[in-house]
Design brief:
TIM Barrel; 16 strands; 26% strand; 379 residues; 2 domains; 8-stranded mixed sheet; 13 helices; Urease, subunit C, domain 1; alpha/beta
């Protein structure tokens, strides 16, 4: 690899921003210097921000590319490549692709297994050099299902599974405490009658009663087998957080209440919230607002969830809320790296991977002008 110097930039360092340059050698950060000078052969960044590449821990974006319309199954290789390119274009250099494991093979709202096959296709494209950024797997273990244990058994330590999240979508609790909101969503998506919805709720509760304990134990064991971080999802009460802590969970995805987020802080569990929640000013499902948790000092990590471009915008918005750009951007760089044990990236520091992005502000909108992975421009 050739050397790269990004000069006359506003560097987003771990604890501050300052004008300077970063020199890259063989894909790693070799040197950081101060000043506005532009050495011969360097890229003049004209004062643009140079930040670490963004790290995305939970995104449904790949599913959107695979099913761009209801009942459309787009060719997977094409969808994976397009997803990868979209993330690179908005400054994401490391992604944990979220894939559901655990299916319901019968009923009005049935759905089948897909994660093992899709993961194999993605990993094959990665091995063949078709992808621009780093990809890991995030298995969303659906406790309220019929097949979770068997689907987890299809994965092993070589599959780059770095997060396993415990998902429990049983009606009447967590994300679906309000059955009226669940009814509006499910009945619209699956064209259900009131009777169909009642049967669906009963089916899910039966599945939870039959398999819940077994599936939770299987997910915890699988995370240990993979060497993956174990995450909770939609914790609502302090009691649920205590259960999460007992499993060894150290990452909470989208706690739904201030009570749960506060309990996470007391248990040393990092809190991750959705970037769209912050950008929109609240949760689309009526749960706690990410901005409120940020103001309370209870927000550690942001995830783009279903809008990849929201990751950078929301981190900069947090920087405005906190009055600290470096702290805001750390929620999408250093903090997710630390939460998942990625010690080689997430900060601009000598010796780390040169995963970097160049950002220019156009009024209040951040525009990614270049994305580098290990010092090579990929977007």
């Amino acid at each position: 690899m050739s050397d790269l110097i990004l000069a006359n930039a506003t560097l987003v360092l771990p604890d501050e921003t300052r004008r300077g340059a970063v020199r890259v050698v063989n894909g790693h950060i070799a040197e950081i210097s101060d000043g506005t000078g532009v050495p011969v052969g360097a890229v003049d960044c004209e004062g643009d921000l140079i930040a670490p590449g963004l790290i995305e821990l939970h995104t449904d974006n790949l599913e959107r590319h695979i099913q761009p319309r209801p009942k459309v199954d787009w060719p997977h290789a094409s969808a994976i490549v397009a997803h990868d390119a979209e993330l690179a274009g908005v400054g994401i250099t490391t992604v944990f692709d979220a894939m559901r494991v655990g299916s319901i093979p019968s009923g009005k709202a049935s759905y089948g297994a897909y994660a093992r096959g899709l993961a194999s296709e993605l990993l094959d494209l990665r091995a063949r050099g078709a992808l621009r950024i780093s990809h890991f797997l995030h298995l969303r273990a659906e406790v309220c299902s019929a097949t979770l244990s068997a689907e987890l058994d299809a994965f092993g330590p070589d599959d780059r599974v770095r997060i396993v999240s415990l998902m429990d979508h049983t009606p009447g609790q967590r994300q679906f405490r309000d059955l009226t909101k669940l009814a509006a969503y499910v009945k619209g998506k699956h064209s259900m009658t009131d009777a169909d919805f009642a049967d669906h709720v009963a089916q899910l509760k039966d599945l939870r009663a039959c398999f819940g304990a077994e599936h939770e134990a299987a997910a915890v064991a699988a995370a240990a087998r993979f060497g993956a971080v174990l995450a909770s999802h939609d914790d609502t009460t302090a009691a649920q957080v205590a259960t999460s802590a007992g499993y060894g969970i150290r990452l909470a995805e989208f706690p739904t209440t201030l009570e749960a987020a506060t309990a996470c802080r007391a248990q040393g569990i990092a809190v991750m919230m959705g970037a769209p929640n912050l950008i929109r000013g609240g949760s689309h499902s009526g749960n706690v607002a990410a901005g409120d948790l940020a103001q309370a000092g209870l927000l550690d990590i942001l995830s783009s969830d279903y809008v990849p471009s929201a990751l950078l915008s929301s981190a900069l918005r947090l920087g405005e809320i906190w009055g600290d750009c470096a702290r805001g951007l750390a929620t999408v760089t250093a903090a997710p790296a630390a939460a998942t044990g990625l010690t080689d990236r997430g900060r601009i520091a000598p010796g780390l991977r040169a995963d970097l992005i160049r950002i220019r502000m156009i009024d209040a909108t951040p525009v990614v002008r270049a994305t580098f992975v290990q010092g090579v421009r990929v977007a």
